[in-house]
From TrEMBL:
Name the record gives this protein: DNA-binding transcriptional regulator, LysR family
Record keywords, A-Z: DNA-binding, Transcription, Transcription regulation
Lineage, opening ranks: Bacteria, Pseudomonadati, Pseudomonadota, Alphaproteobacteria, Hyphomicrobiales
Residues spanning the membrane: none
Family: Belongs to the LysR transcriptional regulatory family.
Molecular functions (GO terms): DNA binding; DNA-binding transcription factor activity
Highest taxon in the source lineage: Bacteria
One Gene Ontology cellular component annotation held by this UniProt entry: cytosol
Function in brief: NodD regulates the expression of the nodABCFE genes which encode other nodulation proteins. NodD is also a negative regulator of its own expression. Binds flavonoids as inducers.
PANTHER family with a match to the protein in the record: HTH-TYPE TRANSCRIPTIONAL REGULATOR YBHD, NITROGEN ASSIMILATION TRANSCRIPTIONAL ACTIVATOR-RELATED
Length: 305
């Protein structure tokens, strides 16, 4: 599949914005890389890259070609996965982008269960905010995205979804810890550590606070949920997360999650999705079924309670 190698070269040049950097990544000389790109441009009849003093930039034709190249590479990976499956080899990798709230427990436990059944499958797991996760899907960088409150695009196919309430994360000795649920006005009485504004839970809080003319006592902000949990634990602050990422069991650090009253903050959707029209590799398709079943079971359990 020599043509795929050339396609991957074009994609790497587009990713790095530099023929030299791409050549280094692929163990080629810059002159050899440049010659291959020039030969391809001559065959197509139009430049794919605009050469600049520092690096290269895709032309309009180049953008179209890179989209084509990525789809061809993804199709080839799917074909190889099918061949391996026929040989009884269920290999990966499964490429997933997810919200941080899924990382510590939910997604890790599903990966562990799946690998017990399919030990040859590997995983490439990225924690990204919802917009970057959807961009990664569109670029064929990941097979699946599991994110909270994504902006729905025509290119997406929703595989499964489940409503998620916001919960207040507090230390077990915090005055709010014993409550069954809390109002947002109660939370505003205590110092808080909040996620930054790129994350879905923070966006909900900001929207609600603006409507209610409510000001939270923000002492710290971070784009890391691990950091926020540390601040709650060490500084006795209050933070917020969707319920699937709430502290539990031995992973809780003596923290608890208290649901925020849905009269204040409505539930949002946690969505498992893929690129519309894309046939997933065997391993990714099988793992998406595992995630879909888990989300369906969560929704059914919530409706019964």
């Amino acid at each position: 599949m020599r043509h795929l190698r050339l396609l991957s070269h074009v994609v790497e040049v587009a990713r790095t914005g530099s023929i030299r950097k791409a050549a280094e990544q692929l163990n080629l000389t810059p002159s050899a890389m440049n010659r291959r790109i020039q030969d391809l441009e001559a065959e197509i009849g139009t430049p794919l890259f605009e050469r600049r003093p520092r690096g290269v930039k895709l032309t309009t034709a180049g953008e179209m070609f890179v989209r084509y190249a990525r789809s061809q590479i993804a199709d080839a990976e799917r074909m190889k996965s099918h061949v391996e499956d026929l040989r009884g080899l269920r290999r990966g990798p499964v490429l997933i982008a997810s919200s941080q709230a899924l990382a510590l427990d939910f997604l890790a436990s599903r990966v562990a269960g799946f690998q017990k059944q399919h030990p040859r499958v590997t995983f490439d797991l990225k924690t990204l905010d919802h917009e970057r996760a959807l961009d990664a899907l569109a670029a064929y960088d990941v097979d699946l995205a599991l994110v909270f409150r994504p902006s729905m695009r025509p290119t997406l196919r929703v595989i499964a979804s489940v409503p998620q309430r916001l919960v207040a994360i507090v230390r077990a000795d915090h005055p709010l810890a014993a409550k069954k649920s809390v109002r947002l006005s109660e939370c505003a009485e205590y110092p808080a550590a909040l996620a930054d504004r790129s994350l879905g839970g923070r966006q909900i809080l900001d929207e609600v606070a603006a409507r209610r003319d409510l000001r939270l006592n923000v002492m710290a902000e971070s784009n890391s949920f691990e950091m926020l949990r540390g601040l709650v634990h060490r500084c006795n602050l209050i933070s917020f997360q969707i319920e699937i990422g709430a502290p539990s069991g031995d992973l809780g650090m003596s923290l608890v999650g208290v649901p925020v009253d849905t009269r204040d903050v409505p539930a949002g959707e946690l969505v498992l999705c893929q690129l519309r029209g894309r046939v997933l590799p065997i391993a990714a398709a099988a793992f998406s079924e595992t995630l879909s079943k888990s989300l369906h079971d969560m929704k059914a359990s919530a409706s019964r309670s």
